[in-house]
Specification:
The structure holds 2 protein chains of 2 kinds. By secondary structure, chain A is mainly beta. Chain A is built from 1 helix and 8 strands, in the order H-E-E-E-E-E-E-E-E. Chain A has a domain of 96 residues: Immunoglobulin-like (Sandwich), CATH 2.60.40.10. The radius of gyration of chain A is 22 Å and the shape is globular. The N and C termini of chain B lie far apart (61 Å). Classes of the chains: A mainly beta, B mainly alpha. At the A-B interface, helix 1, strand 3, strand 7 and strand 8 of A face helix 3, helix 4, helix 6, helix 18 and helix 19 of B. Strand 7 of chain A pairs parallel with strand 3 of chain B, so a sheet runs across the interface. The structure holds iron/sulfur cluster (SF4) (2 copies) and copper (II) ion (CU). The site of one iron/sulfur cluster (SF4) has 12 residues of chain B, from helix 13.
Chain lengths: 140, 485
Amino acid sequence: MPVGSPRPCDGGACFLLILAAACCMVAACSGRPALAEDVTVEWTIRPRPPVAGTAALAELTLRDRARRPVRGARLQVEGHMAHPGMAPLVATAAERGDGVYQILLRFTMRGNWILLVTGKLPDGRRIDHRIDVNATGPAG
Amino acid sequence: MDAGSIIESMSMPPARQADVLRWPVIGAFLRWRHARTSLQLVVLLITATLVAHGLFGSQIGPRNLATVVTWVHYRGLLVIALLAAGNLFCTGCPFVLVRDVGRRVRQPWLRWPHRLRTKWIGILLFVSVLFIYELFDLWALPRGTALLVLAYFGAALSVDLVFAGATFCKYLCPIGQFNFVASTVSPLALQVRQPETCRTCRTFDCIKGRPETNQRGCELGLFLPAKIGSLDCTFCLDCVQACPHDNVALAVGVPGAELLDLRRRSGIGRLTERWDVATLTVLFAFGGLLNAFAMTAPVLDLERWLARVMGSTSEAPVLAVLFVVALGAVPLAALGGAAAVTRHLTRPTSYSVGQIAVRYACALVPFGFGVWLAHYGFHLLTGGLTIIPVAQSAIIEVVGWAALGAPMWQWTGMQPGAVFPIQLGFILLGSIGSLALSYLISERDYPDRPVFAAAPWLGVVLVLAAAAVWILSQPMEMRGLGLSG
Ligand code: SF4
Ligand code: SF4
Ligand SMILES: [Cu+2]
């Protein structure tokens, strides 16, 4: 078998350039409202663990550093399966007063779910919180 | 023996009819000198984007391009391309593009050792990738997925900068081994157009290349006049470019027919003498079943039970046992058993049990392909559209605002229930292919008693088909946190 000779092309250079550009863009990520780092998110879910195919009620409690309830937040929950390409859950939380927010969720599949709680506080800062939940049977 | 006498001594494959290279647009593109490089550049661009996002972006699998594109789109499109055309993903392979650039800096100076010119290391790597995928739940790990992709680039580059030819592709690359096996049931293959022209050819550029124009010949060691089917062919189209007589066709043929062919083929030899290729085809089929089984709910129960029995708290040994059983014990028992029965029913026979198993092993390829299609097709069909919201949310991560709009998470794909009949169709199609191949192999090897010889193999295929249907009908449980999750 003859020793192969490569064809001329500049793919490698392109690759490095693109990678560098992508890195810069990610690093330059900016212009977002500040994260409300002093706000804690506590949560419960009923039933626990939630059962796939039936409704589950999640309750989120937002408190500041002095453990005072944080009111008036606009929160959404985005629920993803651990595996990519599965239908996510998207729901908006309803405020129940005293920093308590409720969301009705219907997990479509058993397995590990990642719930991303995102939203805005009245002062404009961001909430970004991750909750891991395991949904059990019986639904497929 | 010189190339001319090789041609004379070899029965030439019959020229097939339709030639995709003669089709308008597609044919013209494929014959263009830079067709492969441009495909590779596109794939490289996509790969660079998803690697960057995997390394630096959101580490939540379903929101990251690395995990979504690799495990939903790439795998799904790869098997669909193999079903509809051939090994197009090796054509567009970005690892080889980077390797080619590396070779402009440094030429390889060694040849891959003769003793290693088998599939054994490739088989080991193929199983290792399947194992790593399950052990680390790679589908849920953007950074892990990006690192795996980078590892492929690194491996292809470092191996092929030392060893000449397509050493990495032919002997090592796990994706390549998968594609090679699957492409034996693809409809397209690169073939000689007019055998007569090869008989009078004196340059053999398709294998030797044309150094004066920097055109390489087949790096996989496939000499076109003696090439049968697509096994080991990366669809790199070098032979198309190299042949001075324009005598290479991308021909349409009967999927799987090459698996029946007893002739000695260039760069491979006789299939019936290749234990490594037979092992690869068996692992292709059983690996497909295991990979699909691993995403169902029962596998988790099984793993937990095994962990209790073994007194193990970590997943690795439990998974290892599962792999040894599913990819070792079960195939050995199934093929060994069927071969022993065939031998018994066709007495007196000249083949040993091992030889019979090797001769029938490739019959499992269509079934295995059906399983991979059903599984990867499922992810693509149910989740293909998630690329849109994921790209939207990636843009938000990068620029800080919704430049492409707020992520439309309702975009996913078909309902899993609607995909199930399609999956059943793939399993059915693959199983019919394997049943037919089993019978045709029996007719070939035992013309007096084909029914007796085939009976145990038909049984094996039917049992495997039932297992595949059972697996696909199980509730899925997409774990991403290991045993404890
Ligand atoms: S065998 Fe592997 S490295 Fe070679 S072209 Fe195919 S995917 Fe790329
Ligand atoms: S050069 Fe070899 S590997 Fe490439 S397309 Fe032709 S036969 Fe296949
Ligand atoms: Cu899967």
